[in-house]
Amino acid sequence: MVGLKEELLKSIWHAFTALDLDRSGKVLSHNLCTVLNVPHDPVALEEHFRDDDEGPVSNQGYMPYLNKFILEKVQGNFDKVEFNRMCWTLCAKKNLSKTPLLISDEDAFKVWVIFNFLSEDKYPLIIVPEEIEYLLKKITEAMGAGWQQEQFDHYKIALNTSQEGLSAWELIDLIGSGQFSKGMDRQTVSMAISEVFNELILDVLKQGYMLKKGHKRKNWMERWFVLKPNIISYYVSEDLKDKKGDIILDGNCCVEALPDKDGKKCLFLIKCLDKTFEISASDKKKKQEWIQAIQSTVSLLRAGSPPPHKEARQRRKELRQKLLAEQEELERQMKELQAANENKQKELETVRKQLEAAAARAAEEEKKRLQTQVELQDRFSLELEREKMVRQKMEEQVAQKSSELEQYLQRVRELEEMYKQLQEALEDEKQARQDEETVRKLQARLLEEESAKRAELEKWHLQQQQTIQMTEAEKQELENERMMKEQALQVAMQQLKQLELERKEALEQYEEVKKKLETAANNTKSWKDKVAHHEGLIRLIEPGSKNPHLITNWGPAAFTEAELEERQRSWKGKKATSE
């Protein structure tokens, strides 16, 4: 009854919105009671529609009265077509387009009833694009034409951009305009609309002419059969004016194919509880179609299922509701995501501000670091200048050492001269021994100088070790200085090696001199005279005095103090004479 009430309300809503309630509410209510076979209640009708402000109509409106006094009393024993035609009559004149249509008023009425069947259960009533497509496909198939899906897709896109769906009058204008029935005449379109109307509204599952065998006379008569969800009605002709009988269907009915007999072909049998009906179709295809249609109807009755088109409509509606729920859920999720995104944006903004603050702090720290770096660079520059000064001093020391080395070489040259003089004095044994002592002393001095040079090298090495222990940055900056020091060290080492070689050469010379002295000692007889000729460089070997010996370029103990004084007086005399 709930589904029936909803179907009734859609038609009543059209009639109700087209009328002026103050003047025509009573007329609508009276007509509804008449077509719905509901007993009239004149007292309640007058009470509800009385003219003063105390009437229920001013407080509760028309729907409470409609529900309580009319719809709740509907039993279903009324003519649906007549009910819809009454509502159509009340609303069509006001809402139907004045533009000429390619369909008749009767066809427009059928489209209006189909609209009420397919429209959504919300007000104001509209039919959604999916149901429009379903209806247009049914009409196109009924006309035997091909469905133009691409054309409808373009129409659907244009429709979705402007509105959610069509009203009943817009749907009538769409079908009546012939936009989706081009090339078809008015009669073909009308027959297609009637066929769809019969299926969707009158629940006609199948219809057509067949032969039926009579129960009394056993003769075969052609009848127009109409299959509905629970009944098969047969008429004299397809205008449905002269009804000849009904075949009541239920879950116990069955249909069977029969072999050809009595000159009749394409026979099948419908068995019910009280009667059996023999029917002959026009051909095998029609026979099979009718058998399948009746078997499907009986199966639906056994399962308690609604007719296929109503079940399909319900499935489409449930699918739309599911899609709508999913869309609402998606929108809710999108809103949640948007809210979350906004929160994330706020968090990102906070993080951005924190990053900006951190960047400012980092810039300040970078500024301080650069300032510190500049200070360190200045400090390093000062230290570099200091190191340059130290290097300059070291260079001066190296120059001094070079000067000392030159002096040392000068002394070496003097020693060579002395060697020459010693060669001249080889004939004297005493002078040879004194020269031997001189060479020994020279060796000792060279050893002392070598030790001093080694100590100096150790000092330089220690300074180099201290320099290596400096920071990496200082190492890099002092790398050139260290290389110079290493070069100086190598030069000094080479000088030390050269001195070592010279010392070895001096020893070798000393050995040679010693041998020569020994040879000279054997061959020389008058060594005292030669010593006297040699300006007293070598004295006779005598016991030395206890006084300290003097050291000259010729070595220690070369002269006594008296000899030196005598030589000094001689030099002064020569100097005075030369002046």
UniProtKB/TrEMBL annotation:
Example GO molecular function: DNA binding
Function: Phosphatidylinositol 3,4,5-trisphosphate-dependent guanine nucleotide exchange factor (GEF) which, independently of RAS, transduces signals from tyrosine kinase receptors to RAC. It also mediates signaling of membrane ruffling. Regulates the actin cytoskeleton as an effector or adapter protein in response to agonist stimulated phosphatidylinositol (3,4)-bisphosphate production and cell protrusion.
Stored InterPro entries: EF-hand_SWAP70_N, PH-like_dom_sf, PH_domain, PH_SWAP70
Pfam families: EF-hand_SWAP70_N, PH
Highest taxon, organism lineage: Eukaryota
Compartments, record wording: Cell membrane; Cell projection, Lamellipodium; Cytoplasm; Nucleus
The organism of origin for this protein: Orthonyx spaldingii (Chowchilla)
Coiled-coil segments on the chain, per record: 309-530
Summary of subunit composition and partner proteins: The SWAP complex consists of NPM1, NCL, PARP1 and SWAP70.
Location of the PH domain: 203-299
Descriptive protein name: Switch-associated protein 70
CDD domains named among the record's database cross-references: PH_SWAP-70
Keywords assigned by UniProt, alphabetized: Cell membrane, Cell projection, Coiled coil, Cytoplasm, DNA-binding, Membrane, Nucleus, Phosphoprotein
Principal location listed in the UniProt entry: membrane
One GO cellular component term: nucleus
